[in-house]
Write a structure and sequence with these properties.
It is built from seven helices and seven strands; from the N terminus they run βαβαββαβαβααβα. The chain is α/β, with parallel strands linked by helices and about 200 residues long. α1 links the parallel β1 and β2. α1 packs parallel to α2. The chain starts with 5 loop residues before the first strand and ends in a 16-residue tail after the last helix. The structure holds adenosine monophosphate (AMP). The site of adenosine monophosphate (AMP) has 18 residues, from α4.
């Protein structure tokens, strides 16, 4: 079992209209504080992002925000975080988030959340990191996405072993447990750096 002391959460910059999702976000904050897990996230005070950060700070949890300069506006950025890292652009932000975190959790969100989820899983598929990635499927939010991934497997565009890299659970506790016991597969030979 691996102790995950910093987890990066990708989630909506909107709040949505399903209270089971906002409740799950608050519950996640509670679990993180209880287990002394620091939150790494996109530093916004809006949407599901803001709900988690605010709930964690209220309970004196550690919250590290990573935000590109162009998004660092008063209406968006949370200025009360434990630590705020400013990056030049979105690419540097993603790289820093990857480097400082021990694992990644994806909660309900929109395009930004999906982009972050699939980039971080592509990096795992390519052996660029070996950290666990968990999808929190609150109230069936990601059921249709998971169906699409199964279609990709059936039609030969996604290897079953790569599909299985994405850990899924409907509850934070269950997902955390799967992430803690995750073991990244061996990197395929053709992806290993060549020896000269
Ligand atoms: P979305 O799912 O489209 O709402 O985008 C949310 C994800 O994209 C978050 O995990 C953030 O990392 C990033 N993001 C999108 N909008 C913002 C914003 N206004 N401020 C900070 N990060 C954002």
């Amino acid at each position: 079992m691996t102790r995950l002391s910093k987890i990066c959460v990708f989630c909506g910059s909107s709040t949505g209209n399903d209270t089971s999702i906002t409740n799950a976000a608050e519950h996640l904050a509670h679990v993180f504080v209880e287990k002394e897990i620091a939150l790494v996230y996109g530093a916004a005070k809006i949407g599901v992002m803001g709900i988690i950060a605010e709930a964690m700070l209220k309970k004196h949890g550690e919250v590290i925000g990573v935000i590109p300069q162009f998004l660092k506006k008063k209406e968006v950025v949370h200025l009360g975080l434990t630590e705020l890292v400013t990056t030049q652009n979105m690419h540097e932000r993603k790289l820093i988030m990857q480097e400082i975190s021990d694992g990644f959790m994806v909660l309900p969100g929109g395009f930004g959340t999906l982009e972050e989820c699939f980039e971080i899983i592509t990096w795992l598929q390519l052996g660029l990191h070996t950290k666990p990635i968990g999808l929190l499927n609150t109230n069936g939010f990601y059921d249709d996405l998971l169906k699409l991934l199964e279609t990709m497997v059936k039609r030969g565009f996604l290897k079953l072993e790569n599909y299985e890299l994405l850990l899924v659970d409907t509850e934070v506790e269950g997902l955390l447990q799967k992430m803690e016991t995750f073991k990244a597969p061996q990197i395929p030979k053709w992806l290993k750096p060549e020896r000269t």
